[in-house]
C-alpha cells in the first residue's frame, strides 16, 4: 500500500494523475466491459439471471466433447511443443552445435506467419489431393483432418514459444556450474540431470502452460483442418455467427475464457517464484559445451529435421502459389497472382494501414504503462498492471464476441469500422509493449531519472528526454512484434471485419474455404513478405538485432 506521503507526491503531478485515470478508463472500456458483456449475455439470455445455457451445454455430448477435445489437444501439443522447444534451445545454447545463428532464425519463422499457414501447407501436402499422400504415395485419404493434423500443425506453429522462453532460461544458467561439476568427475548426463534440468524446470512448466493456453484458444488451425474434431473456439464462433445463438456462443466463450486466464496467471506465478539462485549474471567465461560429440551429432540432426519441416511447409506455400490446380494440374501459372491482386490488394493495403496506425499507439501506451508501474507509486498500481496484461490471457474468440456485444449498440456503435479493428489490435497487443518496457526499465537505474527530477524536470519531461531514449530498443522491439501480431490476427478480428474493412487473414481463410488454395498460398506468401520487410526496415533504421525484436515474444 502506498504511504500517505507517496499519495501526496503523486497528487502534485496532475498530468501523471490524468494519464493514470485515462489508462484505467481505456483498459476498463476495451477489456473489462466487453468481457462483462459476454458473461452477462451467457447468464441472462432472456434478460433475467439464468444458468440454463450452461446447463444445456453440459447436458449435450457435442459440447462436452468440444470441451474435452480442447483440453486434450492443448495438453498433447503443449507437451510435444515444449519438449521440442527445450531440445532446440538446449542444442543452440548448451549443446555446442554449429550453425547456431541459422537455427535461431528458423526457430522464430513460425512466429511471423499467419496462424493457419501451416494448416494450409498440411492440406497441400497430406490432404486428399496432397503432394505426399496422393501424388507420391497414391493414397486417397483425408486422415490428416482432425486430431492428427491439429497436433502436427500446432506443434510446429507453437514450439517457438517454448523455445523463446527456454532460451532465456538456459542462457541465464552459469556455465561454470556445469564445468565445475564435470571437473569434479560428474558425467555430462549427470550434470544435465542434476544441474541443467532442475534449473530449467520453472521455465519448462511456464512454457507448457503458455503453449497449452495458446493451443486451446487457437482458432485458425481448427477451423481449417479440425474436421469433425470439435473444439471450443470454433464451436463458439459457429454458434455465434453460423447458428445465431448468441447466448450459447457467449457461454462457450466463457468456458474457454476461464481456464486460459487461470493458466495464464499460474504461468506468471511460476516464473516469478522459480528459484534461479545460481544465476548471477553472465559467466566470466563461456564454459565448455555440456555435450559430447555423439550427442552434438544427435542434437544437430534434430535441429536439421525440425528445420526441414519448417522449410517444407514454407516451400509448399510458395510452390502452391504457382501451381494451376493442386493435385490435378501441376502446370506453372501466374493466374493466382492476378486473381489475388484483384480480390486482395485493397484488403492487404487496408490491413497494413490499420496495423501501422495501431502499432505506434500500442507501443506508446505500453511504454507509458510500464513507466507508471516501474517508476511511480500510486493507489491501484498493481491493478493497472493486471488490467494491462489481462488481454493477453483472454482468448481472441471471447474478445471478438465481447466487442460485437459491447460496441454494436448505443452509445458505442463501432462494429465494422476501422476504429474497432485498430482498437482490437491495440488492446490485444499492449501487453507485449508493457512487458518489453518493464524489462528495459529494470535495467536502468532510478538515479538517472531522479537526477533529472532534482534538476527541476517534471515527470513528462523526464520520460520524454531521459527514459524514452534509454529504452528505445525495447520500444521499437515491442512495436515491431505488435505489428506482426496485428498482421497475423484472426480469432478476434474475424468477428469485427466488414465488407469495407476486411483483414487479409480473414480473406485467406475465405479463399481456403472455397478451395482456391492457389490464391490462399499467394496471399499467405505476400503477407509473410510484407511482415519480413517491415522487420528488416525497423532493424536497419533502429539498429535492433533479431534477438532484441523477438525477445518481446517471451
**What is the number of domains?**
2
N- to C-terminal distance: 30 Å
Structural class: mainly alpha
Low-confidence stretches: 275-285
Relevant CATH superfamily of the largest domain = MetI-like
Computed CA radius of gyration, to the nearest angstrom: 24 Å
What's the total number of strands? 4
Order of helices and strands: HHHHHHHHHHHHHHEEHHHEEHHHHHHH
- What's the helix count? 24
**CATH fold label of the largest domain:** MetI-like fold
CATH class category of the largest domain: Mainly Alpha
Which percent range fits the helix content? Answer: over 70%
Overall body shape: globular
Record the strand order, biggest sheet: 1-2
Largest sheet: 2 strands, antiparallel
Characterise this structure.
The chain has 2 domains: 268 residues, Orthogonal Bundle (MetI-like fold), CATH 1.10.3720; 255 residues, MetI-like (MetI-like fold), CATH 1.10.3720. A hairpin with a 3-residue loop joins strand 1 and strand 2. About 2% of the residues have low confidence. The protein has 24 helices and 4 strands. The protein is an all-alpha fold and 554 residues long. It has a two-stranded antiparallel ribbon. Strands 3-4 form a two-stranded antiparallel sheet.
Protein traits:
2 domains, 554 residues, globular, mainly alpha, MetI-like fold, two-stranded antiparallel ribbon
